Amino acid sequence: MGIDAFTINWQGANGWFVPPVCLVSKVISYMRQCFAHGTLVLPLWKSASFWPMLCPTGEGFIKEVKGCIDLPTNKKFYTSGKGNKSAFQSDLLELPDTLIEKIHLLPDLLTESKSNNTVQNYYYGFLRWKKWALSNGISSEFILPAKPIHVAIYLACLVQQNRTPSPINQAFYSIRWAHKIISVISPTDSDLVKNILEGAKRRLSVPIKKKEPITPDMLSQMFDRLYCENNLYNQRTISACLLSYSGFLRVSELLNLKTCDIQFFLSHMSVFIQKSKTDIYRDGDRIIIARTGNKLCPVKNLESFLEWSNNPLDTDVFRMISSYLFSNQCQQTIITSRAEFLKGKNKEEYM
């Protein structure tokens, strides 16, 4: 049975660490945390994200590194594993030595094909499948690539252990990701596995509870209750709510706004969104919000807030907002009960 290595203390052990590229930084950090020592095997990859942790100046390793050995890159120095199931094995054997040395360019780009959080979720999702398969007597050669019947049984077992379809979805797409990334036929393409997933969704699905929409009347009541000249605390709340409502902004987009991202004009303001959930390539986008001329004008209220707060250009617009509206404790309240907040609930009820 497998064990998550990051849940145990590495101190006192002479470790042999050969992590996948996506976990090298985490291994280095955890070694420091545990004051561990051992041998770390990793690619000589000076452009990788983990390299500055080992060689911050580019001219020698950090003092914790007591020595290093360059392993040969020629394939004649190595023997194949017992499984003989390496990804692209036949292709690799046919590559000339000059191209073998460039193989290290591929893994990081493959992991960056999706967001870091997605890759991490898929990676650990695949490890759970691997752990289950090995504990149930499935040979390691049938883990990747996997057989549809094995995956179907695995998903069926997950249905018995969970009350929502989310874990089954994650398992399905984690296995699919692992197979697609090495270009082998995925068991998730099988009609058997697809139908098991659909059955799990139908059995475990729950009714969707729609949120009550925010209306202009609610915003008006909030404004009348909170507005006070030169009250920076209340004006921050008003500005955040009106800007989110008029610009259809997510919480993460709102909290990442900086003063320099906002430009005011006579008829409107321009807001630059540096990154968002739908902007996978981080190109950024600008949204235009018009002046309305009434008390609920998001442009006028944000102008007042910035004028009263006197924020420097390179600071977050709502840098103090986490103390109330979007703290860990209150974030769920705003997401699930924002209508009640706008209707006039007292702050103390949310703290």
Helix-strand layout with pairing:
Layout: E1 14-17, H1 24-34, E2 37-40, H2 51-54, H3 89-94, H4 97-100, H5 106-111, H6 116-135, H7 148-161, H8 166-181, H9 191-204, H10 216-226, H11 232-247, H12 251-255, E3 262-264, E4 268-273, E5 285-290, H13 298-309, H14 328-343
Parallel strand pairs: 1-2
Antiparallel strand pairs: 3-4, 4-5
Helix pairs in contact: 6-8, 7-8, 7-9, 10-11, 10-14, 11-13
Q: What is the alpha-carbon Rg in Å?
A: 27 Å
- CATH architectural type of the largest domain: Orthogonal Bundle
- What is the CATH topology descriptor of the largest domain? hpI Integrase, Chain A
Number of strands: 5
> Roughly what percent helix?
40-55%
Number of domains: 3
- Our measurement of the CA-to-CA distance between the termini, rounded to an integer number of angstroms, reads 44 Å
Q: Tell me the series of helices and strands, N- to C-terminal.
A: EHEHHHHHHHHHHHEEEHH
Mean pLDDT: 81
Major sheet characteristics: 3 strands, antiparallel
Sequence of strands across the biggest β-sheet: 3-4-5
Look at the structure and give the CATH class of the largest domain.
Mainly Alpha
Strand residues, percent? 5-15%
Q: Low-confidence spans: pLDDT under 50, at least 5 residues?
A: 321-341, 343-351
Compute the number of helices.
14
Question: Structural class given helices, strands, pairing?
Answer: mainly alpha
CATH superfamily of the largest domain: Intergrase catalytic core
Shape: extended
